[in-house]
From TrEMBL:
It comes from Streptomyces atriruber. Residues 1-23 form the signal peptide. Keywords: Hydrolase, Signal. This is Alpha/beta hydrolase. Residues 135-161 are annotated as: Disordered. Residues 92-241 form the AB hydrolase-1 domain.
Amino acid sequence: MRVASAVTAGLGLVGLLAGGVSAADRPETPEEQHAQLSWGRCSADQKELNEAGAQCAEVPVPLDYANPHGRTIKIAISRIKAKSPGERRGILLSNPGGPGGTGLATTLALRPALKDVADRYDLIGFDPRFLGESTPVTCGKAPRPTPPAETTTPRRDFEDSVRSARDTARRCQEHGDNAELLPHASTRNVARDMDAIRAALGERKLSYYGISYGADLGAVYTQLFPRRADRVVLDSSTDPAATQYELFQRSGAPAEAALAPQVRSDIREVLARAERHPVPVKGQRLNAPLLRLIFKQLVQHEEHDPQLVSVVSDLKRAAAGEQIEPGPALDGFLDLLSSPELADSMAGGAIFMCGDGGWPAGGWPKDPATYWKNMQRSRATQPVFGPYVNGMIAPCAFWDGEPREPGTKIDNAVPLLMLQARYDNNVPYEGALALHQRLKGSRLITADIRSHGVYARGTEGLTPVPCADRAVNTYLRDGKLPAADFTCSGTDPKTEATR
């Protein structure tokens, strides 16, 4: 469901902070790590994979790569074998973003966009460690949320969010054996797990497509395992020098710019009401922070999104006192907001945001007053999204202990393909340019659209970018990177230097 993926995407934006390559990152040969995997039918929850004839297995990996003979965990993987054995290239992995996104079926979902290219690869999906079916970590049962009162204030809403973040941090770190597991939830370890998957499958190299956080993960993989990277595509990436909190703050301006004038006016009217009286819809009361979360997810994909227009229209009527029957888009969000799926996704994002390098964890300020000050200051220029991106206090602010490792300093010449929308609704274009400069072997395709995500948009019901899709498929099929960076404008590529 699109609304589900929208809420889980973009919640955690990972900055790739300074760090080196440790002995645990040195690639081993497939023979040294090659495991006998037990392939079988995927779990009953993986209906699409089973219908496609996929098989699933579990790859044992070290919990702590610095202690390779210690405790192991299991990484769940799926495989759809190449249909053209004579033209088989190898394996293609993918990651859908987040962090916190599960991915067993993600590579399968790319198959319509890949077209004939899909036949040349074993399509490999995987759930990152501690998510989905990969030795899952839970944060214990969250307390039943107290419905917003009929009246509120921005300060009261903020204090509620502080209490919730503090409680999430406590539950995550105290539940079960999480104290042993969580220090090893990091992007570096997910990249190592990807290499363990490669080795377990007996492959010399792996190819990869990652979007959003998945693009940042791919960049980390190329840094840690440059000789193991085959054909790598990074879609919608971030500034490798920024902290997570900085990235979240920077996402406000492009989101604000994505709002058409009339939609912005209607949203501000709804928010002004909700900051005093939460909007009642279908037995729920939606306060301003919840509404900003919904609007932020809906604005990520493209300008003039009919779902955004529909949701704003419904909420405007409800804020005016009408008893409404919400349309499908708003109804989907209402169901998701009250479901365990959202809580699990939020927790999954938190454990990686808090486990990645940098101190405080991921660069999240420890003092709640910092968030409140930044939130109030942002209202002048970003009245819709400023309070959300500056005031969303992550559980990392209350996380105990430092990350085990620093982040990863990106600086390599691995050949790869980058994609970025010039008017990305979630992360500024300048961040992708910064990563592009550090990935010296990369080529960048810029799409002149307002969106978050460039490749395979047609499979999501969004307006496709045909020349970007063709470039990705040509690269994955033939290994040919573009001779130079270029811009996709409509259906015709226009050469443009972007370095």
